[in-house]
Design brief:
Elements (H helix, E strand, L loop, with lengths): L11 E3 L4 E3 L1 H18 L9 E4 L4 H13 L3 E7 L8 H16 L3 E5 H5 L3 H9 L6 H18 L4 E3 L4 H13 L3 H4 L5 E2 L8 E3 L7 H11 L15 H15 L3 H14 L9 H4 L2 E2 L6 E2 L6 H6 L3 H10 L2
Parallel strand pairs: 3-4, 3-6, 4-5, 6-8
Antiparallel strand pairs: 1-2, 7-8, 9-10
The structure holds Fe4 H S5 and zinc ion (ZN) (2 copies).
The site of one zinc ion has 8 residues, from α13.
Length: about 325
Amino acid sequence: MRCQKCGEKAVINMRQHKLALCKSHFLDWVPDQVERTIKRYHMFTRHDHLLLAVSGGKDSLSLWDILYRLGYSADGLYIGLGIDGGVNYSENSLEYALNFAKERNLLLLVKDIQTEYGETVPMMTIRTHRGREKPCSVCGLTKRHVMNQLARTQGYATLLTGHNLDDEAAILFGNTLSWVGSYLIHQGPVLEADRPGLVRKVKPLCRMYEREMAAYALLVGIPYIQEECPHAVGSTSIYHKEILNKLEADRPGAKLSFYLSFLQARRDGLFSPAADQRAASLHTCPKCAQPTSAPGLCAFCRMFYKNEDYLVSNQLDGL
Ligand code: Q46
Ligand code: ZN
Ligand code: ZN
């Protein structure tokens, strides 16, 4: 297989794009595609102060590398969830993120959940769900809350995440199976800050296949945590990804077309604002000042601020 741009030996064949490229042309092609996505969806400019959520995995570190190469200024945010899973998952992933930032002299903010709120995500899950559930719902809520709060209080214009096309297609597939209108209406490359206290969120890798990002990290030589989070095993999102991979194997481009057709249908008005139950009620959490759908404490504060003793002493220490 030959590179379609220069005739050298190709390192990757992307059937979904009917395109085979050599290493050098592939390493130009990926940032070029990301730049197009940033511009197409008016995500941000080179003057914006950006915050990128960094997990230590291939997607977020590759995105940081691409932004750096393209001349955007993005600081990183690593959230220490305290997930061990027998493989030191959080500790190891932090190590990869720190090394990446150090090598490029980039700023990485680190928020450790246990230090900040007294409990790790698995501890919180045991307390609130009596260990019956995976920690993913507590984890997702915690990450969203902390990312938004930090971006908001530190004055970042936009919050970036490393979700790739496979992630987005799997989320869309799950939401479509159950036709959750309020989720569908808010899924997309850009989530505008449409409520007071919310920070704008964007996904510059939303059109990049996971396989393309893995190849990019490998060819650039970015060390990243290879293991999935131990709690991802058996998750619904992985099951949906497997189904979409089967579809993609038979029909290259199926995932991209599924996602892009959805965005087009939404632009065409498939989902009416009536589907947006979120917009119906606007409240501000009295504890953290972030938006919440019901009066009183938000879901995050209800969870973590039950641990009042710890928080009171933690706040006193800071005085
Ligand atoms: S939600 Fe669940 Fe992930 Fe959190 S506990 Fe691990 S698998 S990291 S994206
Ligand atoms: Zn080439
Ligand atoms: Zn709150």
